[in-house]
């Protein structure tokens, strides 16, 4: 007659060890979590406020992400030495800055986008016209250079958020003649600090609104050449 086999100690050990195995696996999972949470970019509240969204005559200008603006391109008051009188706009396209000359050796500095090589304007001009939410028509030269992009716009584009001139435009004239160069806003904030335009000086919409409010018609504009670049700011 066969004797029944009773459960031995080995089986009991395996059952007792199972919770220990689960605990060990659980501990492994927990240790895979990052010890330090990724840092969130800090934003200066004054900069965020300066580039916040604006309701401008029914056009809602989007806020500019302050974490993506290089500190040098933030609108700011700087020390600036120049022989130009207060109220003059000095554009340094090589440094990618525009300065509004002020009293007591100061200037308001703005980051700008500038022309591609070969399309720059250099010299002096006057602001003969100011416009809010201007319309825009590509020049014949622009259409010839890139007909696929500009031919459909040959009849012009009304002012608005989709217009490449942005919220404001200052029109540069020389000797009473339109130079076809403008200082204007942009709907491409990523282009500030870069050389991408067809000749004009681009500014963030929040900045061109500020500049537009500070300068009257007839104001003088000086666009520096490479030999003059970077010499005014202390």
TrEMBL record:
Cited SUPFAM superfamilies: L,D-transpeptidase catalytic domain-like (SSF141523)
- In this chain the L,D-TPase catalytic domain maps to 87-224
Task: Give the source's domain of life in one word.
Answer: Bacteria
Q: In which pathway does it act?
A: Cell wall biogenesis; peptidoglycan biosynthesis
Q: Which GO terms describe its cellular component?
A: extracellular region
BP terms from Gene Ontology = cell wall organization; peptidoglycan-protein cross-linking; regulation of cell shape
Q: Which residues form the signal peptide?
A: 1-29
List the InterPro entries. LD-transpeptidase, LD_TPept_cat_dom, Transpep_catalytic_dom
Question: Among its keywords, does the record have Hydrolase?
Answer: yes
What Gene3D superfamilies does this protein's entry cite? L,D-transpeptidase catalytic domain-like
In the UniProt record, does the keyword Membrane occur? no
As one GO molecular function, the record gives: peptidoglycan L,D-transpeptidase activity
Tell me which UniProt keywords the record has, alphabetically: Cell shape, Cell wall biogenesis/degradation, Glycosyltransferase, Hydrolase, Peptidoglycan synthesis, Signal, Transferase
* Residues the record marks as active site: 184 (proton donor/acceptor), 200 (nucleophile)
Name the family the entry cites: Belongs to the YkuD family.
Q: Which named protein is this? A: L,D-TPase catalytic domain-containing protein
Lineage runs: Bacteria, Pseudomonadati, Pseudomonadota, Alphaproteobacteria, Hyphomicrobiales
């Amino acid at each position: 007659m066969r004797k029944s086999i009773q459960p031995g100690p080995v089986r009991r050990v395996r059952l007792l060890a199972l919770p220990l195995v689960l605990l060990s696996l659980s501990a492994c999972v927990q240790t895979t979590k990052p010890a330090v949470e990724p840092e969130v970019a800090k934003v200066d509240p004054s900069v965020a406020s300066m580039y916040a969204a604006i309701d401008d005559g029914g056009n809602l200008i989007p806020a500019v992400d302050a974490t993506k603006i290089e500190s040098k391109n933030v609108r700011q008051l700087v020390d600036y030495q120049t022989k130009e009188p207060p109220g003059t706009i000095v554009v340094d396209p090589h440094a990618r800055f525009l300065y509004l000359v002020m009293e007591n050796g100061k200037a308001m500095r703005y980051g700008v986008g500038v022309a591609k090589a070969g399309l720059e304007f250099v010299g002096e001009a006057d602001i003969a016209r100011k416009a809010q939410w201007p319309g825009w028509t590509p020049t014949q030269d622009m259409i010839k250079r890139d007909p696929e992009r500009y031919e459909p716009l040959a009849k012009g584009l009304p002012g608005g958020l989709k217009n490449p001139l942005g919220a404001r435009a200052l029109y540069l004239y020389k000797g009473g003649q339109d130079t076809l160069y403008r200082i204007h806003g942009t709907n491409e904030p990523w282009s500030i600090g870069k050389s991408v335009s067809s000749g004009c000086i681009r500014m963030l919409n929040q900045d061109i609104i500020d500049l537009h409010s500070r300068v009257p018609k007839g104001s003088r504009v000086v666009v520096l050449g490479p030999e003059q670049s970077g010499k005014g700011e202390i």
